[in-house]
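Section 3.1: Structural characterization of target chains.
Under the original work plan, the team committed to producing a structural model for every single-chain target entering the pipeline before any wet-lab resources were allocated. The record below documents one such target. The sequence was received from the expression subgroup and is listed exactly as submitted; it comprises 237 residues.
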Amino acid sequence: MVKSSKMQPLNHLLDDPQALRRRADEDGFLFFRGLVPADPILSLRRQFLQVCDKHGWIAPGTALIDGIADPSADEIEPVQASGVSMAGYQDVQRLEAFHQLSHHPAIIGMLETLFGEAVFAHPRNIGRLMIPAKCNVPTPPHQDYIYIQGSESFYSLWMPLGNCPRQLGGLSTLRGSHKLGILSTRPSTGAGGRAVILDGVEQEWFETDFEIGDALFFHNQTVHKSLPNLTDNQIRL
């Protein structure tokens, strides 16, 4: 059976480490509304969109911050890991503010509450600039551990750089899937090129309409996927 449910924010557990850990152990993910202030996110959003504009993917005559794609962006050759060209993604990776964001005190503070000790912010930051092009398909169901390896206790963080309703293509997580262990995979389209095999697994997927400042943390073996960008011309960051 496969069903979808709405994520519920857990801000009320931020001052209750034991309850936070119980919820993480049970669900495999933690969702918070407005965890990070909007200002640094909006600043980074603008820098991402300046990269898009540099490469000709922003519609002329539109406000940069709105992220409206030029129709010609449908012709770009995307990098599977990012949804834009290799040159564009390299420009994103050069943004100092992009790599600073994962060190924000609100993010580090939540993780230190969860783990009960000092934490290390992994330097592998991935930006998804999903231009609504025919060649861009949603990221398939996968586990981050397969790609990152190392410790089996790390958590990933997903944050939109702006409001991200479901139709724009947010993230969906499979509740309790971190208890399944490391799953077998098969080739797939979309970022990463592989999808975990969920045959016979009862599936309850959780999603929501994300807002700026929201933060979704999940265990490295929690299965997650992106939703499709169903808009005609909006870039999902």
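Strands lie at 2-6, 29-32, 155-158, 171-174, 185-187, 194-196, 203-207, 215-219, 224-226.
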